[in-house]
Amino acid sequence: MANYILKRLLSVIPVLFIVSVVVFFIIHLTPGDPASVMLGDQATEEQLDEVREQLGLNQPIYIQYFSWIANVLQGNLGFSYFMNEPVLSSIFEHLEPTISLAILAEIFAILLAIPFGIIAAKRKGSAVDQTFMGFSLLGISVPSFLLGLILILVFGVYFALLPVAGYMPLSAGLVEHLRYLILPAIALGTMQAALIARMTRASMIEIYELNFVKAIRAKGTKEIVLTVKHVFRNALIPIITVVGQTLGTLIAGAAVVETVFNIPGIGQLILNSVERRDYSVIQGSILFITCSYIFINLVIDLLYGLIDPRVRLK
User: Which of 113, 212, 258, 293 could cross-link 197 (Cys pair, CB 3.0–4.6 Å)?
Assistant: First the structure.
């Protein structure tokens, strides 16, 4: 197990290197820079050059890259001159809303998708199966921002049941915290629920058709025991895989929903930083999200051995 973890961690290095190179050069090659945003349109070229020199933007781009990487390896993701604080502090300040939203959306997706997927698999080809899969196709097709606007209109404007924007931290109380996150979590988690439901159905149908399931059923085992203990457990690996991937996607892709519901998460931090050309924050945030995604996938891989003893991680 230790060797496997070490191999996975070593395999992360080239991934992070490629991500850092792509992100750094795309950002720096995009027209505009922090100096022009900070000083405005009325600034002279001399003033712009002075600020660029202070920020180190007048150096060759490869020098800027290696300087940034050297700082990252020391745990320093840079400094935001717009927010006047280290990038790592900015990320942690915006991390709680994103994590809370992603976890709640994932819980909603799992609780909705897995029962629907199991029922659809049990009734393969029936009207119930076709109905559930039709709704899952609709869930995949509707963009999260559009669903969010519909939820705001229905539950926030027409019925006035839930807040339509803003965020309350967990310190303000669990109930109030959840009231502000329910609508964005549904908007963000619906597409993931559709993916998990379809994967659950496909995986369980595949297990149902295996000979050992027919043998267990022939012994007179109750259908609920057969489904939960034997079929669902053996179908878990692809389900766990897609759950892990969707969680990583929720953390990385919450920017649009955070913007629609005005949630001060990492997604909104990145969008605001792009508008300001705040290079350090953009680079640091994307690198942080990449590391989070890799860590989630590593945890999912380690769970395989616990779920299915036939899987051996070496």
Answer: 113
